[in-house]
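Re: your question from the hallway

Yes, I did run it. Sequences:
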Amino acid sequence: MSESLRLVMAQLDMRVGDVAGNARQVIDAAVRARDELQADLIVFPELSFTGYPPEDLLHRQDFINTVGQAIAEVRDAVSGITLVVGFPHAEGGRLYNSAAVFQDDAVFGIYHKHHLANVSVFDDKRYFESGNQALVFSVKGLRFGVSICEDLWHPGPYDWAVEEGAQAVININASPFHSGKAAEREQVIRDRQKGVPLPVVYVNLVGGQDEVVYDGVSCVYDASGELVVRAPAFDEGLFPVDFRVDGARLVPLPGEVSDLPGDDALIYQALVRGTRDYVNKNGFPSVVLGLSGGIDSAMAAAIAVDALGAERVHAVMLPSRYTSQESLEDAAECAQLLGISYESVSIEAAFEGALGELRPLFGQQPEDVTEENLQSRCRGLMLMALSNKLGHMLLTTGNKSEYAVGYATLYGDMCGGFAPLKDVYKTLLYRLARLRNRAGEVIPERIITKAPTAELRPDQKDEDSLPPYPVLDDILARYVDDDSSIDAIVACGHEHAVVCQVVGLLHRSEYKRRQSAPGVKITRKAFGRERRYPITSGYQPWK
Ligand SMILES: Nc1ncnc2c1ncn2[C@@H]1O[C@H](COP(=O)(O)OP(=O)(O)OC[C@H]2O[C@@H]([n+]3cccc(C(=O)O)c3)[C@H](O)[C@@H]2O)[C@@H](O)[C@H]1O
Ligand SMILES: Nc1ncnc2c1ncn2[C@@H]1O[C@H](COP(=O)(O)OP(=O)(O)OP(=O)(O)O)[C@@H](O)[C@H]1O
Ligand SMILES: NC(=O)CC[C@H](N)C(=O)O
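Structure:
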């Protein structure tokens, strides 16, 4: 038995579906860990070969076969270091979410995930069978148990590894970010250590995948629950951990502990990383967005600039008869502060033309929201034309408060391929604007202080149609994120009529959300696959 060992945590962005690219990443990282970091063992995240979640790609036998070939290639290509890799493993007509241990060009053993994650954004049970056996392997005579992500969140696999003589437990993860997640993970690790305390090595993915973004923050806790190594949030890298032997115990030595910024700063980083990866992984050279002089489009632009660089972001002001001088000035100043291109395309002619054609059909009907939405749709028309012609992807700028109550126009301001702010309540958006400005002003002060308006009719303000945002967001956070009842929310001090108004708007606008672009999940319950409500529903608790 050796006196020491070096493990490397491979905190990498494994791309969903890119099996060959992921296999190359595994080989490159293992060779670097062996040759440059003199590591004995390297650990990769959950489903390293496929990325996570591969969704129904897992139903394809040809995809599973491709993974099998890539595994054989990696196994044969790397020697002189032990690898722990995640992959979908087919055996006896069943599919498992597995981790393989490669040693000396051979597979030492395969562990199958026991606790299949099947809540929130996870669908493990749609694809995988559950395993029920521990896997403990030795490197230089030192014994490590293997577990996969959700396995650590419940009793079972950790204790099995203890019973099989493990001196430390490795947990490979695809654990998405949401606000407060790092503290939840820490608690989970400490809970597991309450029985027989062993060091825990927690290795996580990093990077955006459609609506989720993995934050990394891979870490090592010693047996007494002390954090000894922590990788940074949202950055790839190989992070070494040294162990020494103390009698029968394996002790991780204190190493680099990266600072974790505050919650709002982490959220902002998540929005930037999620937007960057969506745009880049889908092959877009650039993005375009309507810049109105309001906070939503200003913040969407700031995130896009931080994600992609100013030269890849294109802003367009689309004025109408209702656009104020203030909005024109604020949008132009914001574009200038961000250093992005800024064009103006009037929607007046398109709006007038459409109205002229429609008037005979509208007859004597009075003006209403139809004319407002038509303006919004003229903007969508122009912006999508720019996307088609110039190849920019259109960013749509709605926030979580708006998506919640349907305060957005279908095929109007909802046009677009990606919605960076989809999971950001409006009140949080203001905080993020202040936070972003502390690193250099990009959002003009007046954009932060003025009353939000859609400018689709004279003197329109959001508060004409909705409760003030602090009230709206508090009700929504309780009803959407916490699943509280109307009565419970009223008991917290909100007016019954206001709660019913908000809940009614929320349920009635499910059809809009179902047609909306994906966005970055940053809360415990984002709209989309995490909150699946029927569109057609007789459940009407607000009535
Ligand atoms: N259950 C259902 N399933 C499928 N479709 C359904 C539906 N219920 C209505 N619909 C359809 O949806 C239509 C209503 O939705 P929609 O056309 O979006 O129109 P609507 O929701 O009536 O109006 C848009 C709202 O967004 C607000 N807003 C706020 C901020 C910015 C902007 C902007 O545009 O810049 C807009 C605007 O003030 C207005 O309150 C109906 O006419 C009907 O065609
Ligand atoms: N005059 C405009 N020029 C360009 N884009 C516009 C204009 N008006 C609206 N839009 C687009 O439609 C979106 C929705 O408008 P909305 O009023 O909800 O947002 P906002 O103006 O950015 O922020 P706020 O709601 O705080 O006023 C805008 O974010 C913007 O992308
Ligand atoms: N991939 C998983 O099993 C993830 C589930 C786990 N509870 C997490 O979010 O960290």
